[in-house]
What we know:
- It is a single chain.
- The protein has 174 residues and is an alpha+beta fold.
- The chain folds into two domains: 2-69, no CATH class; 73-172, TATA-Binding Protein.
- Helix content is 53%, strand content 19%.
- The protein has four helices and five strands; from the N terminus they run ααβαββββα.
- The chain has a five-stranded antiparallel sheet with strand order 1-5-4-3-2, sandwiched between helices.
- Strand 2 (108-113) and strand 3 form a beta hairpin.
- Helix 1 runs antiparallel to helix 2 (36-70).
- The radius of gyration is 22 Å and the shape is elongated.
- The two termini are 33 Å apart.
Amino acid sequence: MKAIKKIFFLSFIAMLVLYVVTNITFDLIVGKEVNWINIASSGLVISIVYSLIYYGGISVTLKPKYNYLESEELNEPIFGDKLEKTTKLKNIPFDFNEVKNKIQEKWRITYFDSRNNIIKYRSKMKFNSWGVGGFLKIDNETAKIISFPIVGYSRRDNKLVTEMIELTEKIINK
């Protein structure tokens, strides 16, 4: 949930700066006197309203997947837009903590359960992608890897989902 709050704060700042700079530039171009108090107060109100609407929209979209990733839920994700792969382990005996450390180097671990051999992790959000989430469960001599986009389906996110599964499989079988 920290990520969603961070998005709210960044959208607020971006909207405020954009509004203030645009109005000051327009006033200077037109030759009108710049009314700092009016621009700042209007900018604050507009930025707050915009950010709340934006925050509400992304909360509805992102919250279920972030809540799943950060929860202690041991079942597989039930999202419709997921890819999954079951693979046999090549290295037995298997060191689960080593796999955890390797995954942590590549992605952000949101939940770890060494007793049940489950790791939930996600990629970082970027400006061009909301990222993808992953679920890894080791059972006996098999590993189940599930990956899903944080926000809906897109070609870019589908590629990231596939890459996450392939890289996780490489990490497991090294």
